[in-house]
Amino acid sequence: MTRPHDLLAAVADGADPGPFALVRREGADHLELFTGTVGTTGRLADIPLPDGPPGPRTLALVPYRQISERGFACIDDGAPLECLAITGHHRIGLVDALAVLPDQPVRTTGAGFDSTDDEYAATVGRVLADEIGRGEGANFVIHRTMRATVQGPPLVAALAALRRLLLRERGAYWTFVVHTGTRILVGASPERHVSVDDGLVMMNPISGTFRHTGTAADRDALLRFLHDPKEVEELYMVLDEELKMMATVAEHGGQVVGPYLKEMAHLAHTEYLLAGRGSRDVREVLRETMFAPTVTGSPMENACRVIARHERTGRRYYAGVLALLGRDDAGRQTMDAPILIRTAEISPTGELRVPVGATLVRHSTAAGEVAETHAKAAGVLAALGLGPDAPSAGPGAAVGHDRSGSAGPAPRRDPAGSLANDPEVRAALAARNAPLARFWLDQRTPRAAALPGLAGRRALIVDGEDTFTAMLAHQLGALGLRVDRRDWRAPAPVDGYDLVVVGPGPGDPGDLGAPKMAAMRALLTGLLDAGQPTLAVCLGHQLLSGLLGLPLHRREAPYQGLQRDVTVFGATRRVGFYSTFTALADADRVATAYGPVELSRDPADGSVHALRGPGFAGVQFHPESVLSRDGLAVLADLLGHLLAQAALTGHGPAERG
């Protein structure tokens, strides 16, 4: 059964037409119908992507538990990685689809969240105090699930919900129903996770939530939202985290485009677009980007540990992706993968699950995050008869801008009022880029920033469980170094490098019994004893400070995702912090066992932002962060210092032969 009308008619008559997916992609005037057979596989690398004529090959339903492929923690709920091997691909006009999709209400019983508002608020409080407050990360997403039982045929209910989403939701990246025979997914996801087309890798971090009633957008309230420090910093933090991923899968790292306003029926979000060239297998790209920080947190590895500690149940498909894999006209691999959010899962017996999460940052309040979960779930809950509808927008209203700089087709009707092109809104969005690092915002010419004397020199970055190191590698490479990265758990000789960077990571630097802290302290001790040029960043800086005899202090208010102007060895620099701990000092110069050390301190409380001594330096902030407008200049200055010291002490490459 491959004709769209026949398939939908069969469902309406109560028949099971076999596995299929109906998908409307952003801006399209039609739906795509994919049919075929369903199988399961254990690994992303085993998702089928056979050769052949151009077109889609496989639609994969990737559950959250696949994060274990990266060695990250999760509650294993056994949700399978299902793959629809596509044998049929048809198009059906949007108006025609609306005419044949079931036009009837969805009826449910027993609806309720698996955690009450008070219970969820208590979890928010614990995460803010015990995780962000203790240096475990900058932001975390904790989910809860609305549960109910669908009355009547589940597939008919899902298609009726799809019809309502097509009519009443707007701004979705994908609006879809997927039926595998073992489950049905129906939703309107606003967010592209990752796509690959013609070698261009794109990601689309979305964060910040402006709630409205759907009847009329309040322009003044929206402008206040766009200037709210919590909302601004929340988007910056997920931008940084997805830049880490792009730095891994794109040859020269990602370029930032935007920000934009994404308007939906019940809320609006702010978003960026990231783009970069890459040549990896699309399944490898998918693996290296599991999963978006907008649904997990940062840094990623520790965010997964925090989620496993605080969530009651597995996530199943929430925060995973749908991944459509195929080939283009030249036989090259393609992929389009929206995040599985704003999505309901329905079992063959009618069990309904609608998971939703809120992003917790240092500015969060328990009440605000509870309200955010209700707002985010509102669209799909309304489609399932579990909440009020936004006003009908008509089938053309979900057509949005393409985020490449030009506007898409104008909506036919838009009762909420589009403010994305309002001059003050556009100005408020553009102003968000003013304090950011141009290194990530501008197109980069290879070697344009290279420093004299760095050609042929090698640097090693030791990763302390924070892939900010991937971004740092691109910046050091742009300055002219050849860079390797290594996990802290993979000890190996370091004497073949001109520079060793002991990098960032989560955790308490004062916990000397923790394996990571012990290993990184031992590495630093060896580097200092050998006089090998060393740069320490964030956690590395804290551990270096401890070895130099400086006391460490846990801040009452964490510096997570915080941008500040600080003095770094006489120059004012705009830099970004992701830290809870800091070293303290009451003088600008101290004598240590490794020689005299110069400090750049905060005049208010003595916090040590940077230090440098004979052959070593450290910075508490992240020069590689998009928040560090002057980060590249800081790195260039420190490299000049370290390499000059190396020449004086005989640690240059020529001297080592």
TrEMBL record:
Residues 460-638 form the Glutamine amidotransferase domain. Its EC number is 4.1.3.27. It is an enzyme of class 4 (lyase). Residues 118-376 form the Chorismate-utilising enzyme C-terminal domain. InterPro entries: ADC_synthase (IPR005801), Anth_synth_I-like (IPR019999), Chorismate_C (IPR015890), Class_I_gatase-like (IPR029062), GATASE (IPR017926). Residues 392-420 are annotated as: Disordered. It comes from the Bacteria. Pfam families: Chorismate_bind (PF00425), GATase (PF00117). PANTHER family: AMINOBENZOATE/ANTHRANILATE SYNTHASE (PTHR11236), ANTHRANILATE SYNTHASE COMPONENT 1 (PTHR11236:SF49). This is anthranilate synthase. It comes from Micromonospora coerulea.
